Amino acid sequence: MLTISKAETCQTVITTFEMTPGTCQDLMEELVDAYENFISRQPGFVGAGLHVNDAQTRIANYSQWKRREDFQAMLRSPEMRERTRRFNALCRSFEPVMYDVVEAYG
């Protein structure tokens, strides 16, 4: 379960994908498949959310991991490297960035 709190010790990763409306659904299907069949089963995975803007030109992915090293190990796996190549073919760019929660409201 995702929890946004500065008291949490998990690693937060936010990835933004830029694409055209013509490839948005294809990329979303790839991302859903990756989470359902691979990413969510990796050691240290806590939870994730996928968000698409109404113009279908951006997908934002928010994920949490127990440790930074868990996320990095998942990224370096042969299966994820193959999936990353497919993501790359469907979008202009994407960038996963690790964050620490500084404050949370609500």
From TrEMBL:
Keyword Oxidoreductase: yes
Keyword line: Monooxygenase, Oxidoreductase
Top-level taxon: Bacteria
GO MF, one example: monooxygenase activity
PROSITE patterns per record: ABM
Signal sequence, renumbered to the chain: none
Gene3D superfamilies registered for this protein in UniProt: 3.30.70.100
The UniProt record lists the keyword Magnesium: no
Coiled-coil parts of chain: none
Annotated ranges, domain ABM: 11-102
Pfam annotation, one family: ABM
Annotated protein name in UniProt: Antibiotic biosynthesis monooxygenase
Origin species: Aliiruegeria haliotis
